[in-house]
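Hi F.,

I've been meaning to write this up properly since the lab meeting, where we talked about keeping a consistent format for the predictions we share between groups. The idea is simple: the sequence comes first, exactly as it goes in, then the structure tokens exactly as they come out, then a line or two of notes. No screenshots and no reformatting. I'm using this chain as the first example so we have something concrete to point to.
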Amino acid sequence: MCHLAVLVIGTTRGILHVKTENTPFNRFFVPTINVTETIREDVVIELN
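Output, unedited:
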């Protein structure tokens, strides 16, 4: 789960950077997130 979250966050940050080029929003810094502090236990996804 942590690895998936890191990929999603990194991709989202990149998309926001590209999509806001040449706009006032591009000057804002989107910080990284320490996923290991956010996800503290295993996540079980049941597929039926």
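Notes:
The chain is about 45% helix and 0% strand.
The chain has a mean pLDDT of 88.

If this format works for you, I'll send the rest the same way.

G.
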